[in-house]
């Protein structure tokens, strides 16, 4: 046992940016082209952010938290809560940079006023402010595991509401089969959006059936407080059985569609990041194994589990879809 464990630790003892990164598939020519034209502007953008980067403003939803914990969702044996100080300082949010230390830059995002457009195959499109949405939705706290496609993982006490409540509010028509989510677009606050080789804005999508599943959670808080900007304020998704890139941050638009939308990562590299992206240790990413994951707190490698351990809740969604690439 222990020698096997040592072996696993050894081959995986590479830093994340070498072992696995969502970004490095970009071919060199594209990168050079991009840097040649946009490199300077990007540096200037990053510098100009530092002034108000850490400015703290009162979040008008702060008084809503903490919310009641739904005890049905537990982390499972051997898993503990990842400390807030780790979770808030190690993030993927490419709008603010293609590395993990974006928390300071992300403070430039203005999260009020914040409106969400709900449109497409719905009875009537609506625009709703985040504070009105918060008033309408039954908020609760859930402890979820979270597994990034780059093979690191964490756990989070999310606050928010089950997505099915938003679907009911949206009143989709019988033509609606998918739900498409879009992140804000404003390169004046998000310098990563000047990197024109990415297909901004960030887009993600799930089926309507997935959206109605009990696990699909719209996040508005974390650690008993409003969700911090670097983690996707004021509204993000949490799909704990899928790779982390599906859990889109800072949502401004939710569209019900008849056709399957193409997501941000799928558009960039469909062979590496598919539509379904369900966790499966037996299906390697083209550039690395998915058999184990690195716990963000302890640094230990632990075995990954199909559907990130949520098979009981979600496996039935895929029973008739075995011909699809469900695990990338
Ligand atoms: N808008 C947007 N949403 C995003 C991303 C992003 O770059 N932009 N990164 C995704 C990826 S790859 C991961 S792993 C998670 C990271 O969430 P965290 O920073 O809260 O851990 O956010 C996902 N949602
Ligand atoms: Mo990720």
Number of extended strands = 12
Uncertain residue ranges: 1-18, 36-55
| Structure classification | alpha+beta
Rg over C-alpha atoms, rounded to the nearest angstrom? 19 Å
Major β-sheet, in short?
7 strands, mixed
Please name the fourth-level CATH homologous superfamily.
Oxidoreductase, molybdopterin-binding domain
Ligands: ligand MTE, molybdenum atom
Mean pLDDT over the full residue set = 89
Helix count, DSSP H or I runs of 4 or more residues? 10
Output the CATH topology: Sulfite Oxidase, Chain A, domain 2
Helical residues, percent: 10-25%
Query: What's the CATH architecture name?
Result: Alpha-Beta Complex
* SSE arrangement, N to C: HHHHHEEHEEHEEHEEEEHEEH
Number of domains: 1
* Fraction in beta strands: 15-25%
Structure description:
This protein is an alpha+beta fold and 328 residues long. It has one domain: Oxidoreductase, molybdopterin-binding domain (Sulfite Oxidase, Chain A, domain 2, Alpha-Beta Complex). 22% of the residues lie in helices and 20% in strands. The protein has ten helices and twelve strands. A hairpin with a 5-residue loop joins strand 1 and strand 2. The longest helix is centred in the first third of the chain and has 22 residues. The two termini are 29 Å apart. The structure holds the ligand Nc1nc2c(c(=O)[nH]1)N[C@H]1C(S)=C(S)[C@@H](COP(=O)(O)O)O[C@H]1N2 and molybdenum atom (MO). Ligand MTE binds next to loops.
């Amino acid at each position: 046992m222990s020698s096997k464990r040592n072996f696993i630790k050894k081959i995986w003892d590479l830093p994340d940016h070498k072992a696995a990164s969502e970004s490095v598939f970009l071919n060199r020519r594209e990168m050079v082209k991009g840097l040649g034209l946009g490199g300077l502007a990007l540096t200037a953008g990053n510098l100009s952010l530092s002034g108000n980067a850490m400015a703290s403003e009162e979040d008008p939803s702060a008084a809503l938290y903490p919310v009641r914990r739904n005890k049905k969702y537990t982390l499972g044996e051997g898993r503990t809560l990842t400390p807030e100080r780790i979770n808030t300082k190690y993030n993927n949010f490419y709008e603010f940079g293609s590395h993990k230390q974006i928390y300071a830059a992300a403070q430039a995002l203005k999260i009020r006023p914040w409106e969400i457009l709900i449109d497409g195959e719905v009875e009537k499109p609506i625009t709703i402010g985040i504070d009105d949405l918060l008033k309408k939705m039954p908020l609760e706290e859930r402890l979820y595991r979270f597994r990034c496609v780059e093979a690191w993982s964490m756990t989070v006490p999310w606050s928010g509401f089950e997505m099915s409540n938003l679907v009911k509010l949206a009143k989709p028509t019988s033509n609606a089969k998918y739900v498409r989510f879009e992140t804000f677009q404003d390169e004046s606050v998000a310098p990563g959006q000047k990197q024109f080789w990415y297909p901004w804005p960030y887009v993600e999508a799930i089926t309507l059936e997935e959206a109605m599943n009990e696990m699909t959670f719209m996040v508005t808080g974390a650690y008993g407080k409003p969700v911090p900007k670097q983690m996707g304020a004021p509204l993000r998704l949490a799909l704990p059985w899928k790779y982390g890139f599906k859990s889109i941050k800072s949502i401004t638009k939710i569209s019900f569609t008849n056709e399957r939308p193409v997501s941000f990562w799928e558009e960039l590299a469909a062979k590496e990041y598919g539509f379904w992206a369900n966790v499966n240790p037996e299906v390697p990413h083209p550039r690395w194994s998915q058999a184990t994951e690195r716990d963000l707190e302890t640094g230990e490698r632990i075995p990954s589990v199909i559907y990130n351990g949520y098979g009981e809740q979600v496996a039935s969604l895929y029973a008739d879809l075995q011909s699809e690439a469900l695990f990338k």
